[in-house]
Amino acid sequence: MTLDTRSKAEVVNIVLAKYQNDSSMLVGILQDIQAELNYLPREALEMTAEVLSIPLSRVYSVATFFKAFSLKPRGRHGIHVCMGTACHVRGAEKVLDRFQTELCACAGETTPDMKFTLETVNCVGACALGPVVVVDGEYEGQVTAEKVKSIIEGCK
Amino acid sequence: MVAEKSGKRLNSASELELLCEEIKRSVSARTRTVTICCGTGCLAYGGTKVAQAFRDEIKSRGLESEVEVKTTGCHGFCERGPLVVIRPENILYQRVKPADIPQVIDETLISGRVIDRLLYTIPGTKEKVTYEHDVPFYKKQMRLVFGANGYIDPTVIEDYIGCGGYAALSKTLFEMKPDEVVDEVKKSGLRGRGGGGFATGAKWQSTREAHGDPKYVICNCDEGDPGAFMDRSLMEGNPHAIIEGMVIAAYAIGAHLGYIYIRNEYPVAVKHAEKAIAQAEAMGLLGENILGSGFSFSVKINRGGGAFVCGESTALMASVEGRVGEPRAKYIHTSEKGLWDQPTVLNNVETLANVPLIINRGAQWYSSIGTANSKGTKIFSLVGKVNNTGLIEVPMGITLEEIVYGIGGGIPKNKKFKAIQTGGPSGGCLPASKLDMPVDFDELTRAGSMMGSGAMIVMDEDNCMVDIARYFLSFLEGESCGKCVPCREGLKRMRQILDRIISGQGQPDDIELLENLSETLTWGALCGLGGGAANPIMSTLRYFREEYEAHIIEKRCPAGVCKPLISYNIINEKCPNCTLCIKACPVGAITGQGKKLPVILDQVKCTKCGACYDVCRLGAVEVR
Ligand SMILES: Cc1cc2nc3c(=O)[nH]c(=O)nc-3n(C[C@H](O)[C@H](O)[C@H](O)COP(=O)(O)O)c2cc1C
Ligand code: SF4
Ligand code: SF4
Ligand code: SF4
Ligand code: FES
Ligand code: FES
């Protein structure tokens, strides 16, 4: 536990130093912290507020306003199903349904074994290939419900 | 390579000109350039591996001094990626795989023969097309802003300079007064490409005249409009053009600091913008004393966190200040009190990318393109149910028909065109009867839609317009910041009404109720998110009312989309028990009865996922 909290603290310190404790860069700071820790733990938010000398409520309001942030730990593999318009008209709903069935998790949830987090996004900017699914940062285009199983199995 | 040698600081207009000449000479010394698209679309198809294979193969054969391999941003024709174009001939190879590379080098680069199987085939006529400029998708376009994407490596500033980049900046700084720049942009008739279509020159003028120092320039690369990716592709594929546009804007209004606001979902755009800023600063094209002119301007990058409302000007500025991205009422314009209450110009990526073009070629030339009140070209993302998906750049005034059929190649699988959605969540759906309409800011608005940022989503007979309306409402409900009541509550109630209609519980007066709520929302909302939110409803009610009525009165979804109103059934006569659907059904709702006998579909187990419908090749599954 102590080791765990210390490494969180280190991450936060490194990120804050990179932004020279500039509170106007709060969104970027939280993004970088999340990129390292995979979510935003309470301790990290408290430290950020403390070091930047801004109210914790402001840090929380930013951390909960933007979709990109998660206050809960996330699975080892992130599956983002695009629900943007271009993907929607080409059947993204069917793809999402199949992911939910196969993973036994609803959008926004993490599987109990912490292996997958299933999330929806509104457009990832590869609309020409819709439906698009982003798995651990890699784009998969023209996904069909049939391909879902092999995508999941492809995640080791 | 020039790239490595030159990175030194340029201290005058003539030094920039000399460098441009030098780069041009070194390019023509090579016989061939291979450009490989590494935009997001082509990357998804394996573009990086193709590029790497090319580099390795060219190197192992010692051809580096004759052939230059260049990775570029999106070429536009994402549907057929990964794309490889061999220049100067412009031979276009599509769907290229790493295994194809040795053959491309042997046959095309060395022996000068074209490889038939890698060429693009026109779907209808089966005709093969050799050259990029002959492909119908490109032929009808006018690629003034976006064209350079296919020629330059966005991470190499010399590529941009070699194409005449930063010449407009040099002309601005040394030959024009700030007022003249504003005038030129005003005369060009350029209107903002971010959605509202506000006259760019007028915006610059009011910021120039506003009292207050410092002033700021912000580039809006939030691109929250789902279905649009032109800003991303410009920022990824040609970031220097945007930076050049920003410096010109800064000179015109008297700003010394600017921000590029990029959504975090676009990591490559962030990376390329960062790199471009560093390169431009190192070469004296950005930062202190630009090109020795005495004018200074620097640019910082801010990343958005995935909130659609942050694309709105005041919300964006709040977010840049490190606060929650909530809009404020605009009694005072951001041109007077914007970022940190200082005069601020906020422009869209594409708007800024148009600026160097206007300065280089003149307002008169620019305003000769387009229609009476919409000048120049517009980049659209042509996506959805259309054969040639991708990014297109067309002159204002082109008809929807030319876009969908001429450039887009029509609807896949010979389905019927139903609607085209333009303008994103604040736009509308236009029916087939509007296909002959010329596309510009005013025509689209008159038809009940809008230009928006330029997403064009084509829908066919399998798309349900009530479902689409509900889709946009639930999107906006999720993105509403919640600050004002009409938007926060109105969107929710409207979505609930649509849910009711979709599940077969619609009431006869629901349409009227939707219309009333739409009006309240349009007039009562604080910002453009709520203000435009009723448009998808209003436009579908205007053009596709009978579909709403079918749902409400007949309890039927004509397109076969809305789950509670449909069921999947086997047409016994057509089914010889090929068992494809049995394997495809995720819940085991289909069972066989033995050889040649039709399969049986259990309606109780069926979750209506549609997999059986999608796999059946004999049309033996129907939706009712
Ligand atoms: C809800 C909402 C979202 C918007 N999103 C964007 C966006 O993603 N990109 C953009 O350039 N403009 C967006 N706009 C428009 C901006 O508020 C602003 O008008 C525009 O960036 C100004 O630049 P322009 O004059 O060059 O078009 C949005 C507006 C609203 C109301
Ligand atoms: S209209 Fe919607 S998004 Fe805009 S301020 Fe009101 S609640 Fe927020
Ligand atoms: S619609 Fe889906 S669940 Fe129903 S029978 Fe077909 S495959 Fe099975
Ligand atoms: S896929 Fe079609 S033809 Fe084959 S068993 Fe199913 S319904 Fe019959
Ligand atoms: S709508 Fe899915 S990537 Fe744009
Ligand atoms: S990403 Fe390659 S053409 Fe668009």
Which terms would index this structure?
heterodimer, A: 156 residues, alpha+beta, 4-stranded mixed β-sheet, 12% strand, B: 624 residues, alpha/beta, 26 helices, 19 strands, globular, disordered N terminus, binds flavin mononucleotide, binds iron/sulfur cluster, binds FE2/S2 (inorganic) cluster, metal-binding (chain B)
Structure notes:
- The complex is a heterodimer of chains A (about 160) and B (about 625).
- Chain A has about 160 residues and is an alpha+beta fold.
- Chain A has helices at about 1-20, 25-35, 40-50, 55-65, 85-90, 90-105, 150-155; strands at about 75-80, 115-120, 135, 140.
- In chain A, strand 3 and strand 4 form a beta hairpin.
- The two termini of chain A are about 25 Å apart.
- By secondary structure, chain B is of the alpha/beta class.
- Chain B contains 26 helices and 19 strands.
- Chain B has a five-stranded mixed sheet with strand order 12-11-15-13-14. A four-stranded mixed sheet of chain B has the order 2-1-3-4, covered by helices on one side.
- The longest helix of chain B is centred in the last third of the chain and has 18 residues, at about 485-500.
- Classes of the chains: A alpha+beta (about 160), B alpha/beta (about 625).
- At the A-B interface, helix 2, helix 4, helix 5, helix 6 and strand 4 of A face helix 3, strand 9, strand 11, strand 15 and helix 19 of B.
- The site of one iron/sulfur cluster (SF4) has 13 residues of chain B, from helix 25.
Q: What is the oligomeric state here?
A: heterodimer
For the largest interface, the chains and their residue counts are: A-B, 47 and 62 residues
Strand content of the residues of chain B, in percent? 5-15%
Largest sheet of chain A: 4 strands, mixed
Strand order of the largest sheet of chain A: 2-1-3-4
Mean pLDDT of chain B: 94
What compounds sit in this structure? flavin mononucleotide, iron/sulfur cluster, FE2/S2 (inorganic) cluster
Spell the H/E element sequence of chain A.
HHHHEHHEEEH
Give me the Rg of chain A, rounded.
18 Å
What is the total tally of β strands of chain A?
4
User: Ranges of chain B with pLDDT <50 over ≥5 residues?
Assistant: 1-5
Q: Report the structural category of chain B.
A: alpha/beta
Poorly predicted ranges of chain A: none
Distance between the termini of chain A: 27 Å
- The helicity of chain B comes to 25-40%
**What's the N-to-C terminus distance of chain B?**
64 Å
Strand content of chain A: 5-15%
Which strand order does the major sheet of chain B show?
A: 12-11-15-13-14
Mean of residue pLDDT values of chain A: 90
